[in-house]
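Ticket #4471: structure output looks truncated?

Reporter: J.K.
Steps to reproduce: submitted the chain below (75 residues) through the standard prediction queue, then opened the result file.
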Amino acid sequence: MTIVDGVFYLVTVDEEWGDGRFDRLGIDDDASSIQALRSLPFKPRSVAFDGEQFWTADRNNHAIVSFTLAIPRRR
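Returned output as attached by the reporter:
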């Protein structure tokens, strides 16, 4: 999980450790919510943000993967 401007982002996999998802966890609403932002065609492990890109590991292929996502910035 990583936190960007007070918003939680995480990578998840299903119960069979299949394809992954990149999710946003909303906690500032009256009720918590998880929003799937994009599918990941591999089994991700952890997530980080460097100010421009998200980074995760493709554990089966021993690779580091980066991707971008338009993130509305809080003021």
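Triage note (M.O.): checked the attachment and the full token line is present. Residues 2-67 form one domain.
Status: closed, working as intended.
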